[in-house]
Write a structure and sequence with these properties.
This protein is an all-alpha fold. It has one domain. It has helices at about 5-15, 25-45, 55-65, 75-100, 120-140, 140-150, 155-165, 165-190. Helix 3 (about 55-65) crosses helix 4. The radius of gyration is 17 Å and the shape is globular. The chain starts with a helix and ends with a helix.
């Protein structure tokens, strides 16, 4: 996305937050392709026979964003992070529903190499989501960083911008969160 488009997105997000209903139809064409790319990114780590497609995931995320409490979206990067979180939650909800129907459970994933992790089953996605919720109760900032980096595909500088943190803090929290998640998942696998 060009700098001009990014600036236009920020202006439209501000107008939308202030109640300008015309801002949303103007915003959608500017971010749609990027949201499709993000949806494809999320779906790449899903099982091969997943029933959701990128277009459906984008549309569902938009519906969730429109139907929820208004979020003050600061800029394009923040919008993408919020949309990414919505997509992640849609996939987790989908996985929980499938798992409940199958009555499977208990699978754990190895998060030693979280950056390269491919979630191959509904159980693995649910297990990762559960671990992230535990981390979020202990350190909300670290959980947000993991979510944005792993699920959102955002870089450390982008996360730094969204959260208003230094790059060093983002890198340090990312490293700490990976170690914590690895420990949690290892303990969960032990009898």
């Amino acid at each position: 996305m060009s700098e001009g488009s990014s600036g236009r997105v920020t202006v439209l997000l501000q107008q939308w937050a202030q109640g300008d209903e015309q801002a949303l139809p103007d915003l959608v064409p500017l971010v749609y392709q990027e949201l499709r790319r993000l949806a494809r990114y999320h779906l790449e780590s899903e099982r091969r026979d997943h029933t959701l497609q990128s277009t459906a995931l984008v549309h569902e995320a938009f519906l969730r964003l429109l139907g929820s409490e208004p979020v003050e979206l600061q800029n394009r990067t923040h919008f993408i992070a919020v949309a990414s979180r919505a997509m992640r939650q849609i996939l987790v909800d989908h996985a929980r529903g499938r798992r409940a129907r199958k009555r499977d459970g208990g699978a754990r994933i190895d998060v030693e190499c979280l950056a390269d992790l491919a979630v191959n089953s509904d159980d693995e996605l649910v297990a990762l989501d559960d671990a992230l919720h535990q981390l979020g109760r202990l350190d909300e900032r670290q959980a947000k960083i993991v979510e944005m980096k792993f699920f959102g595909g955002l870089s450390a500088p982008e996360i730094s911008q969204v959260l208003g943190l230094s790059r060093a803090t983002v890198d340090r929290d990312w490293a700490t969160a990976r170690v914590w998640l690895h420990r949690q998942m290892s303990q969960a696998e032990s009898p």
